[in-house]
Amino acid sequence: YFIVNYPTCDLKVICAGKPDLAMSDSSDLREEATAVVKQYIEHGRGAESSAKVYSDSGAKYDQYMEVLNYNAPRKTAEIVAELLKDNFGAKILDVGAGTGLAGAELVKLGYKNLDAVDAAEGLLSVAKQRQIYDKVVCQFVGNEKLLFDNDTYDLALSCGALQENHLPLEAFQDIIRVVKSGGYIVTVFREEAEKVPWYKEGVVAYMTGLEKEGLWKLHLRTTFPNCIADKDGLALVHGVL
Hints:
- Pfam families: Methyltransf_11.
- It comes from Arion vulgaris.
- By secondary structure, the protein is an alpha/beta fold.
- The chain has one domain: Rossmann fold (3-Layer(aba) Sandwich).
- Helices cover 38% and strands 26% of the residues.
- The protein contains 8 helices and 9 strands.
- The strands form 2 sheets. A 7-stranded mixed sheet has the order 5-4-3-6-7-9-8, with helices on both faces. Strands 1-2 form a two-stranded antiparallel ribbon.
- The radius of gyration is 18 Å and the shape is globular.
């Protein structure tokens, strides 16, 4: 028996003595996942339409990310752990939390004081099932002021939330608002998304501008392999001033 476990939906594919069938199913799922991800980041789609595609695919999202070898959540959690060390009570905001993949990795490491915000209700419904977040808020970050008080969090993170049709760069000013002085903002995404049309001047150029304004300071910049589907990732850590 060949049993494939998908962590959030408890789906089991059992192929008695038929490994070729299991391989075929995996290949089909990868093709399906690739096609859906292309819709997420299709140029010209816009944030609201992209959020709807996310919501509609929420039930299978974790399966898609698994078959595409989505490594960004694990990398994000590793960076957060390096920053917070044994401060397991630190208050953390997961921006663009999706189904809670990054949050789940943080919980494994002992960090459990988490809140989540995302624009796709279909993804957040899965995140709620994990029961790892204290607050779960559905809103378009950047388009609307975050529903959190100033200086609430020790750290905010966004994992995979910078892409075409995704988090607007203007959102970072509001994220900075809700993070305490001396806290951190961790941003992890596919390196090639740094220059997509959605971000005009580029992600790094905009973030450098915020540093010149005295809002935060770059603490760490690193690249890593296999962010998703063999694409390299970029991780940026800023300290809030």
